[in-house]
Amino acid sequence: MRYSAWNIFKQGLTGNKGWTRAWRDATPKADYDIVIVGGGGHGLATAYYLAKEFGLTNVAVVEKGWLGSGNIGRNTTIIRSNYLLEGNQPFYELSLKLWEGLEQDFNYNAMVSQRGILNLIHSDPQRDAFVRRGNAMQLSGADAEILDRDRLKKMCPFLDFENARFPVQGAIWQPRGGTVRHDAVAWGYARGADARGVDIIQNCEVTGFVMDGGACKGVETTRGTIRAEKVAVCVAGSSGRVMDMAGMRLPIESHVLQAFVSEGLKPVIPGVITFGAGHFYVSQSDKGGLVFGGDIDGYNSYAQRGNLPVVEDVCEGGMAIMPMIGRARLLRMWGGLMDMSMDGSPFIDKTHISGLYFNGGWCYGGFKATPASGFCYAHLLATDRPHETAAQYRLDRFRRGVPIDEKGQGAQPNLH
Question: How far apart are CA 147 and CA 129, in angstroms?
């Protein structure tokens, strides 16, 4: 069923009794060409692009819970492509371009809102670094602009420009950045993949891999054995545990990243604002709530909840740049599982096990990368060749000495 203004009008006249299910509740078959482990944004996007771009529809997506129960529904909804290094910038610019046409592409309202993103500048060296980043962005076709203090003050007069410790001197602005409704992305991709024949199987946890002569030939699940020519894993913070079932150790750690929502307020935040002297980022939802977050919890965890020291640190960051946030009441908070890689950049690659593929290590960048991750992973699965924008996201890059260290903090995932 195609969504349109006419259908909304028609269903309104008939008591909304004619809407069909967004996707089927598929029963797993015995064999598929490709089984995708993980029904989050990346897994569903991969299935969608496999069907749409490559005509591969004998595909199953297996999810241990329900769609939207993982990180795709537990993030701060920000999209951007303001990266520096050549291994990252073209990839995230591809993702932003896919975001821009996404709703028309899969015929679903994902509430893509390109309100812009501001990264605040607090010192002269930081301005120099952001000018360099802006030049790299423009070289890859992205948009970037350096705002001086006066122009930023007109845009965001509520910022604490006179803060003695963190004076606000300007910002780097990407007008095409913004926010998207997180769980709607999962629903849109699921609906689009299902319409093209992909089986989406919920409440189906993978308990092991089917190995035959050193090659991966399928998965063992709580709903039986499912055989496949290729198995594609993309399970975010659970990557280490799932890949361990295949005997693989990954160069990642799992950490919790907390997010917060305030009470509903009148419109005040023009887009997305990030603190340049700490880790704090904030936007405002369509319902008026301030949506914000900060750093990961420094210890390893598989829990979808955080701790109070990080709550305090995030709130301190908000108070440092916009003291008015101290008057807002916090309504709720949650945690997502981050699979933090050793250089802060992801992996989209074959493994050394024939038939087994891996997508993970997204750190903070998973949500904004959803379209490009799915597109490039689908390209790899369909052609057995990496997409040009993801060619550096190799599992062996540390052994080869070519990490993509965007933040320059080395092999300390708890600092990324």
Answer: 14
pTM: 0.95
Whole-number Å distance between alpha carbons of 80 and 83: 9
Dihedrals φ, ψ of 256, to 5°?
-90, 135
Nearest of 106, 108, 67, 69 to residue 201 by alpha carbon: 67
DSSP alpha helix (H) spans, 14-55: 41-54
User: Could you identify the residue written with the tokens 């969608």?
Assistant: 48
Q: Phi first, then psi: what are they for 51, rounded to 5°?
A: -75, -45
Please check whether residue 272 is in contact with residue 177, taking contact to mean a CB–CB distance below 8 angstroms.
yes
Q: Cβ(270)–Cβ(259) under 8 Å?
A: no
Running DSSP on this structure, what letter comes out for residue 109?
A: -
Residue 287 · residue 295 · CB < 8 Å: no
3-class DSSP state for residue 108? coil
The alpha carbon of 386 is separated from its chain's Cα centroid by a whole number of angstroms, namely: 20
Structure tokens at 330: 């916090």
CB 259 within 8 A of CB 349: no
pLDDT single digits (tens) 96-139? 999 999 999 999 999 999 999 999 999 999 999 999 999 999 99
* Residue where the block lists tokens 């299935």: 47
Both tokens assigned to 91: 């990839």
